[in-house]
Amino acid sequence: MTTAPAAALARHPHDDLLRTERIPHIWCSGCGIGIVFGSLMAAITKSGLPRQDVAVVSGIGCTGRMAGYIRLDSFHTTHGRAIPFATGLQLARPQGKVIVASGDGDLLAIGGNHFIHAARRNMDLTIICVNNFNYGMTGGQLAPSTPYGAKTTTTPQGNPDEPFNFCALAAACGASYVARWTALHIRRLTNTILEAIHHRGFSFVEVVAPCPTAFGRRNKIRGALDLLRFYYDRSVVKNHIAPGEATIDFDHHLVVGKFVELDRPTFLDHYQMVNRGQVEAWPATGVDASAAGQRKAG
Amino acid sequence: MAGKAVLTGTHFMNGDEACCEGALAAGCRFFGGYPITPATEVAERMSKRLPQVGGVFIQMEDEIASMAAILGASWGGRKSMTSTSGPGFSLMMENIGLGLCTETPCVICNVQRAGPSTGLPTLVGQGDMMQARWGSHGPYEIIALCPASPQEMFDFTIRAFNLSEQFRLPVLIMADEVVGHMNERVVIPPADQIEVIDRAKPSVSPAEYLPYRPGPDGVAPMANFGDGYFMHVTGLTHDQRGYPTMTPAAQVEMTERIVGKIRNNLDRILDYETLLLDDAQVAVVAYGISARSARGAVLAAREAGLKAGLVKLNVAWPFPEQFIRELSHQVKCMIMPEINLGQMVLELERLAQGRCAVRLVAHPGGTIISPRRIVEAIGQALKERP
After folding, report:
1. Fewer CB within 10 A of the terminal residue: chain B, N end or C end?
2. Residue A50 belongs to a domain with what CATH number?
3. A77 to B68: CB separation less than 8 angstroms, yes or no
4. How far is B286 from chain A (nearest CA, A)?
5. Alpha-carbon distances, residue A295 vs A285, A298, B102 (angstroms)
6. Is B199 helix (H, G, I), strand (E, B) or coil?
């Protein structure tokens, strides 16, 4: 390591949110996670929320290490299980804001079932997904996001799988806030994370980010900036487009923007309503209870 | 029964329901679970009762999620539990390890059915006992209680919560289908006569707080999400700050402590009862529903003039090693009846070291062990040459 002059060691604006004693971090040079982490810290600062009311939960993987560097109550759980852990945490202390930081493999391969059910319930969680199209921590294997035909260490001849469209999936499952940016849309990303934090319900932010070390290298885009540019140049902003049309198609467009923003009750809202007797019994119409009873008696 | 966490009085209820009431009396206010026979009645009663006492019930998408959710809820400051049976217990193993490594208090009730695999979903088994001890990877100690009646389901569930809060770990209630489904009298005492222990909270400022610095009994005080301590909690090997530390030295310190807080506090954890043991030549050592078969067998053997005694293990893990070692000096034979093909009997063999005979009375599951078979084993043991 080179020794920086003292003047260059001035405090970083986010130092108060960093566990600076844990730096240097483990991320490779050129990794996009640091950009997303910076945006997350900026959004938390802008949110004005008391620090003790914000928790970050992660699973396993490169993005999962975010929880270890942020100076908040932070939980680094098992692979794929950040969402159900966060669900318990949030329901136990609903006044707190729980943010899940997760990679594409962690969140939507091993953790896919939890993702779809938390979205369905509109659980009051903010999910930040850093999508770098592969498993970086283990050296670059196939992920549910890996583009068709792309090379990884477990698809050396090219990926035969169709990838997920995470934003379409989230929206179809009931997520009430869905957005996507690349890691080079920094200001828009920060504003989106801020909105997602303030959103009540399941908010999902996908960030397309470079992994030059494990993914780009095997797919002829070795430079970190080249990979950032590759994603950014193909991106086209289409806010409020039907989520199914918010595709990631590297031959045409990588659609970014805010696709879903709905105001609907969270799991806990519904739970409290049914427990207060405020929810009409199912089915509300079409059944005559007394007539049904007569038929049974007859 | 709206609004009352402790249903003081005399009830007729099954073991699963008694488990739920014990949990509520101990202060449980979060349940994350998934339906599975024969444990479903715990979840069903929880879904009705928790909203009455300001708690939250959620049916998760599977047992992996259930186990993760109760860990999260515990860090959110609520006493939490789940219930399951064999297949679900298998799915919970990884996150039970997370709970052990992060020292998270919570309770898991396993109403055992016969396995392996889907096995006999509606019929009794005791085949998860070694899984309870060793099922999650890596070195650890666990606490497992074995109720033999609905009353003990109530009492032991309270104790399970107290132990989990005291020693900061997931505590297992290793029940079985017969205990879970049998209806018996359950006496619930007044709330002020129930001992409820809560986790120790940090007494130092956030600047001084080390989340994994052990107290005198080896257990670190625990801050909850929102207390302002800004702790980091990880399933990676960590130091006293809670920070990942990838060194053999950190591994030694962490694992020796999470094992040591159990091994060094056995006097506060172990629990067994004895019957007619003083002059016994044969000791029947049993747990759960098989302890009731064993009790009947010991009484019948005594009527027939056979010098038999009973050891009923209320806590199966940690195993009462010292006591069993001493017992092996006294008796001619130790007999273990269990509804599997030989699990806890291995502990007797290990501790007897050939000083006395050790016999297994086994059934692979589907029915309880008849006292008659145990009486026969007692008679046989007394006929054998020393």
Report:
1. C
2. 3.40.50.970
3. yes
4. 36
5. 18, 5, 58
6. coil
Q: Which two tokens stand for residue A163?
A: 């990838």
CA-to-CA distance for B212 and B224, rounded, in angstroms? Answer: 13
d(CA B259, CA B266): 11
pLDDT, tens digit, for every residue of B84-142? 999 999 999 999 999 999 999 999 999 999 999 999 999 999 999 999 999 999 999 99
Looking at the complex, report in whole angstroms how far the Cα of residue A266 sits from the nearest Cα belonging to chain B.
13
Domains of chain B: 9-193 (3.40.50.970), 273-383 (3.40.50.920)
Average pLDDT over residues B369-373: 98
What's the pTM value of the predicted model, to 2 decimals? 0.96
> Which of A87, A268, A269 would best serve as a mutation to test chain B binding (most B beta carbons within 10 A)?
A87
Q: Given CA atoms A147, A150, A155, A158 in this order, what sign does their dihedral have?
A: positive
| The two three-digit tokens of residue A286, written as one number | 């079409």
Please name the residue that has the structure tokens 């046989």. B380
What does the block give as tokens for B319?
Answer: 């195993």
B323 Cβ under 8 Å from any chain A Cβ: no
Structure tokens at A237: 């902003």
Cα within 13 Å of Cα(A258), Cβ side = 16
User: How many angstroms separate the CA atoms of B212 and B102, rounded?
Assistant: 9
CB atoms within 10 A of CB B385: 4
Sheet holding B333-338, edge to edge: B272-275, B308-313, B282-287, B333-338, B357-362
Residue A24: φ, ψ to 5°: -75, 150
Nearest-angstrom CA–CA distance, A144 and B204: 46
pLDDT in tens, B249-295: 999 999 999 999 999 999 999 999 999 999 999 999 999 999 999 99
Q: Is residue A4 part of a domain?
A: no
Of B209, B154, B206, B201, the closest CA to residue B18 belongs to B154
Count up the domains in chain A and report the number: 1
Answer yes or no: is A82 within a domain. Answer: yes
What is d(CA B102, CA A77) in angstroms, rounded to the nearest whole number? Answer: 9
Whole-angstrom Cα distance, residue A81 to residue A83?
A: 5
Does residue A5 fall inside a structural domain?
no
User: What's the CA gap between B33 and B30, in Å, rounded?
Assistant: 10
Enumerate residues 136 to 195 of chain B having a beta carbon within 8 A of any beta carbon in chain A. Answer: none
Beta strands in chain B (DSSP E): 9-14, 28-33, 56-59, 79-84, 106-114, 120-124, 143-145, 170-176, 183-188, 232-234, 272-275, 282-287, 308-313, 315-317, 333-338, 357-362
Parallel, antiparallel or unpaired: strands B120-124 and B308-313: unpaired
* Pairwise CB contact (< 8 Å): A73 & B69: no
Residue of A nearest to B242 (CA): A68
How many pairs of residues across A and B have Cβ atoms under 8 Å apart? Answer: 138
What would the pLDDT profile of A211-237 be if each residue is shown by its tens digit?
999 999 999 999 999 999 999 999 999
Based on its alpha-carbon atoms, the radius of gyration of chain A, rounded to whole angstroms, reads 21
A75 and A85 Cβ atoms separated by less than 8 Å: yes
A158 vs chain B: nearest CA distance in angstroms? 32
**Position B353: which residue type?**
Q
Host domain of residue A284: 12-297
- Could you give the dihedral angle defined by the CA atoms of residues B286, B287, B290 and B292, in that order, rounded to the nearest 10 degrees? 90
